[in-house]
Amino acid sequence: MIDNMLITYDREPESYRHWSLAVDGAVATLTLGVDEDGGIRPGYELKRNSYDLGVDIELNDALNRLRFEHPQVRAVIVTSALDRMFCAGANIYMLAGSSHAAKVNFCRFTNETRNFMEDASRRSGIAFIAACNGTAAGGGYELALACDEIWLVDDRSSAVSLPEVPLLGVLPGTGGLTRITDKRRVRRDLADVFCTDPDGARGRRALEWGLVDRTAPPQRFEAAVRARAEELAARPGLPAGEPVALMPLKRHIEPDGYRYRNVRVRIDDARRLAEITVSGPSAPVAVERSACWWPLAAARELEDAVLMLRTNHEQIGAWVLKTEGDPEALLAVDALLAEGAETDRFLRESVAWWRRALTRLDVTSRSLIALIEPGSCFAGPLMELALAADRSFMFQPLDEPETAPRIALGALNRSGLETANGRTRLDCRFSGAVPELPAGYIGPEEAHAAGLVTFAPDELDWEDEVRIALEERAALSPDALTGMEASLRFGGAETLATKIFGRLSAWQNWIFSRPNAVGEEGALKRFGSGTRPGFDWRRV
């Protein structure tokens, strides 16, 4: 049963309530001017440029449009429409009134958006400058931390801060601590002082401690930031190419799920599972520079399906991943994208959207089961769905071996669609020691022997083995599964992103459920009341 009060993730610039996007040649400016009455649900005001999920959904949309609709942009200034306030971070009253799952989903999406800004900088050559023309606190400072450079106005009052520990009793900025230590290399003793001082750090101290990159007085601030943005925009990079309009997604809400052109989601509430089927092209596709082109359209639809499911269907704990189509056509798409991404911005950004959609799948706290059946097309970019799964089952017919499903690896499986830890899913699967894998199309027995699938049941056992696996999964503790899956999906050395998501799954999940934060006397409940929180002083 589909709830009428769905949260959706598609936006258009004409309907933005919180952000404005201005493009002037190779420099764009994203200005945050939050509509205080524009919360994604009623019950709170978004004061002092504080934000909720709706604000971040608009930012995510703007970032996507910069990469496709404004390919000439090489530098982005992120600033505020308010005087003396860049951003106060996540709205506390929104957090206090949200369910535990809503808090964690909000924090996850926020961090994904920040990570995708860093991905655009690293892989697409778009430099981001945080022009903090006022105080940046909590998640507001974390937004600045996601940029390549942070400029702070030196007006003797504006500061940067992560005040969550002294004010809210929660982990600073979810990813804020990780970014100041791992990205900005701030000494941990200085970070300790910074994160326990609710006033944060102003001009000279913020600069000396490495919390910002540059400061400028108010009368020169805007011109200095603009000059730096133009300098960064002049760096060499890929030719801009033609702009591609991101037309609205065609999502149809049905009684049992969602349907797009290339993706179908069926929800089984009784069994607490969703079946996601991605349809590949039926024939090789030539490059079509539009949002309808299969590689771009399918990536957008898959990403939207992931976001819709994890936000609006919290009790659906297992996602069954399926595909259909022509594996040969998928391999042709794979080769086209892998080769063209080196020189063609549109193809590079199409690959980037696949990478982001698959990363959202990786960090979603759901069990992922891939079913490789006759008619499947787990090849090239769609093979990543099977590699992302916690378990995969490949159907093996007793007779007529020509009807057996086949899988195939393409160039993108070896480079281009890396997970949040910067490694390919093949590398993650084989713990950094990828064996020599079969070339061409791979049948069930060969795939199982090569370690590319978990099980290859024959047709007599298929139905029972799949059913038992799904029933067993549904009977296990969802909390235990979340902890297990998050630990197993990102083996090997950690990166900034995996640290953020791992700590979000563990520390933030724990802190947000503790009475010191959310109890009747907790810091979130008491915030703004004038009454100090009552803490349980025992360390756990």
Tally of DSSP helical segments: 20
Helical residue percent?
25-40%
Question: How much strand content do the residues show?
Answer: 15-25%
**Inertia-based shape:** globular
User: What is Rg?
Assistant: 24 Å
The count of β-strands is 17
Summarize the entry for a quick read:
This protein has 540 residues and is α/β, with parallel strands linked by helices. It is built from 20 helices and 17 strands. Strands 11-12-13-14-15-16-17 form a seven-stranded mixed beta sheet, sandwiched between helices.
Account of the 3D structure:
There is one protein chain. This protein has 540 residues and is of the alpha/beta class. The protein contains 20 helices and 17 strands. The protein has helices at 53-68, 92-96, 100-124, 139-145, 164-168, 176-183, 188-196, 203-208, 218-233, 294-312, 327-340, 345-362, 383-388, 425-429, 444-449, 462-475, 478-489, 496-511, 515-518, 523-526; strands spanning 19-24, 27-32, 75-80, 84-87, 127-132, 134-137, 149-153, 159-161, 201-202, 214-216, 252-254, 257-259, 263-268, 273-279, 318-324, 367-372, 391-394. The strands form three sheets. Strands 11-12-13-14-15-16-17 form a seven-stranded mixed beta sheet, with helices on both faces. A six-stranded mixed beta sheet has the order 1-2-3-5-7-10, with helices on both faces. Helix 4 runs parallel beside helix 6 and helix 11 (327-340) crosses helix 12 (345-362). The radius of gyration is 24 Å and the shape is globular. The mean pLDDT is 93.
